Amino acid sequence: MSKSANQPRDAAMTNVSLSDRAYRIRRNALRMGEVQGQGYIAQALGIADVLAVAYFHALTYHPDDPEWEGRDRFLLSIGHYAIALYAALIEARIIPEDELESYGSDDSRLPMSSMASYTPGVEISGGSLGHGLGIAVGMALALKCKKSKSFVYNLLSDGELDEGHTWEAAMSAGSYKLDQLIAIVDVNNQQADGPSTEILNFEPLAPKFEAFGWYTQRVDGNDIEAVAAAFDKARGLIEPKPRVVICDTSMGKGIPFLEKRERNHFLRVEPDEWQKALAILDAGRGQ
Ligand SMILES: [Mg+2]
To answer: Which terminal CB of the chain, N or C, has fewer other CB atoms within 10 Å?
Structure first.
C-alpha cells in the first residue's frame, strides 16, 4: 500500500504493516478486557482495522505532543468504545503500554468511558451519545476560520444515528461545506437493546448523508485496504463537502467464539476465555 503524505512523522512508527497494527490493537484491547473481565470488547475487535488505518495511515500527529496545534483531531463520540481507542493510542505510543494494566481501575487514566480530561490523545468526553458529530462540526468550523489545514475525524456508531443531534450536525456540516470534516460511521448493526436497524431503521444510509451534502463512501470496515483507500479519497477530495466513510464491521472480528456470542453489545467473558481469545489472535498471526 502506498504511504500517505500525512502519515505520522515518527520514523519508528513506520515499516509496520497496517494488519500488524490492527492485530496489536486487538491484542491491547483483549489484555485490557481481561483486567476487568467484561466490557465492550466486541466493538473494539470490530473497529480495530479502522483504527489501524486512522492512526497509522491517515492522521497526522506527534505521539510526544498529543496537543500539538497542527494535529488532526480524532473525536470518539462513542465513549464506551474507549477500550478500542486506548488500544490504538497505546500502539501509537501516546499512552504508555504499562498503563494498560490499570484499565478501568480507581485512579487510572483509562476509565471505561473515555474522558478528555483524563487521557492523553482523547479529544472529547464521549459518554453521552450523539454529540460527537456536533462537536466535530464546531471544531472543523473553528479550524477553517483559523485557516488551519488540520482535519477533524469523528467516529460514531450506528446507534448514534437514532439521535436527532447527529442529523442536525450532518445538516450543518453540509451547509457550511466543511471539507476538513471526515465522519466514520461504525455500522455493526448492534446497539444496547438489539440490532440497530430493527430498533430504528437508518437504511439506506449513504443516500441520507448524500442528501445532506456529504461526499459518501461505504466500505467493508474489516478490509484494511478498502478502508485506507476510502480514507485517502475522503481526504484528497477537492470538492468543498464534508466526507463520510460508512464502515460495515463485524462485532468480535477475529475471535470466532465472540463473533457468535448472542447479545454481544456488552460482554462478560469467563477468565479462561481471555487467554483463549489471545491464543486465537496470536495463532492468526503465526505466533
Ligand atoms: Mg453499533
So the answer is: C
The alpha carbon of 249 and the centre of ligand 1 are apart by a number of angstroms equal to: 9
Question: For residue 191, how far is its CA from the centre of ligand 1 (angstroms)?
Answer: 5
User: Which residues does residue 268 pair with via DSSP β-bridges, in sequence order?
Assistant: 38
Contact 55, 88 (CB under 8 A): yes
Distance 188 CA to ligand 1 centre (A): 5
Distance CA 174, CA 162 (A): 19
The residues, ordered by sequence, that sit 6+ positions from 138 with a Cβ below 8 Å of its Cβ are: none
- 103 within 8 A of 86, measured Cβ to Cβ: yes
pLDDT higher than 60, residue 186: yes
Output the CA 190–ligand 1 centroid distance in Å. Answer: 4
From ligand 1's centre to the CA of 141, what distance in Å?
27
Per-residue pLDDT band at 287 (split at 50, 70, 90)? low
Q: Which of 155, 69, 150, 80 lies closest to 114 in space, CA to CA?
A: 80
Residue 45 CB contacts under 8 Å (≥ 6 apart), including other chains: 26, 29, 30, 251, 252, 253, 254, 255, 258
Element (H, E) at 134: helix 132-145
Cβ distance 222 to 250 under 8 Å?
yes
Judge whether residue 11 has pLDDT over 50: no
User: DSSP code of 191?
Assistant: B
User: 192 alpha carbon to ligand 1 midpoint, in Å?
Assistant: 8
Looking at every residue in the chain, the average pLDDT score rounds to 92
Q: How confident is the model at residue 63 (pLDDT cuts 50, 70, 90)?
A: very high
Distance 267 CA to ligand 1 centre (A): 14
